[in-house]
Design brief:
- Keywords: Cell membrane, Developmental protein, Differentiation, Disulfide bond, EGF-like domain, Glycoprotein, GPI-anchor, Laminin EGF-like domain, Lipoprotein, Membrane, Neurogenesis, Repeat, Signal, Transmembrane, Transmembrane helix.
- It comes from Cyprinus carpio.
- By secondary structure, the protein is an alpha+beta fold.
- It is built from six helices and 30 strands.
- Residues 139, 313, 325 line the site of one 2-acetamido-2-deoxy-beta-D-glucopyranose.
Length: 487
Amino acid sequence: MRFPLLLTLQASWLTVCQATQHYPTTWGHYDLCKSEGYTDEGPTWYYMACQPEAADMTKYLKVFLDPPNITCGDPPETYCTLENPYMCNNECDSATEELAHPPELMFDHEGRNPTTFWQSTSWKKYPKPLAVNITLSWNKTIELTDDIVITFESGRPEQMVLEKSLDYGRSWQPYQFYATDCLDAFTMEPKSVRDITQHTLLDIICTEEYSRGYVWKNDKTVRFEIKDRFALFAGPKLHNMASLYGQLDTTKNLRDFFTITDLRIRLLRPATGATMVDEYNLSRYFYAISGIKVHGRCKCNLHANSCIYDKERLTCECEHNTTGPDCGRCKKNYQARAWSAGSYLPIPKGTANICLPNSVGPVNCNCNPFGSDTDRCNGTGYCKCKEGATGAKCHECLPGYLWDNGCKSRVCDSELLRCQNGGVCVNNIRCQCPPAYTGLLCEKPRCENEPGGCGGSYSGQAYLYPPGLILLLLLSILGPVFLVEIC
Ligand SMILES: *[C@@H]1O[C@H](CO)[C@@H](O)[C@H](O)[C@H]1NC(C)=O
Ligand SMILES: *[C@@H]1O[C@H](CO)[C@@H](O)[C@H](O)[C@H]1NC(C)=O
Ligand SMILES: *[C@@H]1O[C@H](CO)[C@@H](O)[C@H](O)[C@H]1NC(C)=O
Ligand SMILES: *[C@@H]1O[C@H](CO)[C@@H](O)[C@H](O)[C@H]1NC(C)=O
Ligand SMILES: *[C@@H]1O[C@H](CO)[C@@H](O)[C@H](O)[C@H]1NC(C)=O
Ligand SMILES: CC(=O)N[C@H]1CO[C@H](CO)[C@@H](O)[C@@H]1O
Ligand SMILES: [Ca+2]
């Protein structure tokens, strides 16, 4: 299998850009990553950073259930519906094809009627929890490009956790919590994706949006909202993907947030409909999933156009003299320069960061124009970085700095540099302090600065921004304009 060239997401901003873009006829190694398009003047090539097209990733996964014997049908069982305990015509028998509900039915092509679904045994051992882990493994790093959607056929679970792994299942982190009552289930305040901002994007939330309303049979899906999170950077219709790619390029945490090797759906409590579980008829309670959607692309570090599936394994088809499943290192004898991931910047053609043969001397290449002092690198391929920038190409930011056409120092954030005494962090560049406090992080009671000290009569004056902060504020407002202008 080979993914075609054009990238779904990039295409959405290319269409915005194409009217005014003009490309040089050749770009050396950038020629690799291009796709044909059409303008009023005829066919033309669009150049871009190298990455495989986004695709339906459920075709390439392995699924594991825990406990392994939790699928219904052995021995055969008859189920009642959640809504009506007298309607008991759902029969599960793993030995009969028409009555079996194996895990594969979560990933088959839907569109058939009735739908096909995996089903668990019923909650026979109540009050012991009916807990099931569904683990999806790719054995390959994947970058998510669209919402994860799970469709339940017999009520959505009352408690569930979506977890992810970035290291092939060795360690797991929660991605999102789902419950009818977040406080009760996980002692977390209920939130929705609409509460998330650019600055809290990495926060893990518990949502009640997808657990209520079992009676409304159309509400069958549970989502992990990727696109709403992208929209925080790319705008509501994802028109400004350039802005998103710029951020992904320079903020490793953000890039990693959307990257997985495995997903785990932890089903903790099935739909029960009523407030009380009907202990005398537990055949009403079980999990049934008809579909799981995971859309993404192979992570190839911007060193491949395509990803192949061969012998049950996904592998990037590495260019730029790189190798490894994710093109994560230079080929043997191509280590004249330290390996580095390709870059989306400058938008749109990106920077290839090719590996160089050992025999050939260093070249000028492609220092990041915003992060480095000059466009030339030194004898071993390092660029001279401006303050706050790092990496061979000066395209990454040191801790404490944020990418904004170069690395701008970060005054505050929601992690280590929290504003104190109730101050609010604005765009990571200043704390907006309550009237009684001042200082970079609102750490100083204002009265300390006043004649007479605290207890004096001058407290509560209006707060004036130091001129430097105003400049920084302006810079951060002007920042995104560049990315729009470039189109
Ligand atoms: C699954 O297997 C375990 C251990 O063999 C057993 O204790 C349990 O009852 C089985 N569960 C079902 C639903 O068959
Ligand atoms: C559940 O209730 C229905 C209707 O009363 C009955 O037909 C069915 O046998 C019951 N199931 C169990 C396991 O008691
Ligand atoms: C599911 O996974 C969690 C950790 O992610 C583990 O604690 C639990 O034992 C697993 N199995 C079940 C049946 O929940
Ligand atoms: C995972 O992929 C690596 C190569 O990338 C391979 O060596 C390994 O056998 C694979 N593991 C499984 C469980 O398929
Ligand atoms: C190039 O810069 C790197 C990092 O500053 C340094 O380690 C290396 O020695 C330099 N090489 C030359 C030839 O100046
Ligand atoms: C051996 C090898 O793959 N060489 C390639 C190194 O990269 C340049 C530019 O991408 C190619 O032209 C070479 O073929
Ligand atoms: Ca199905």
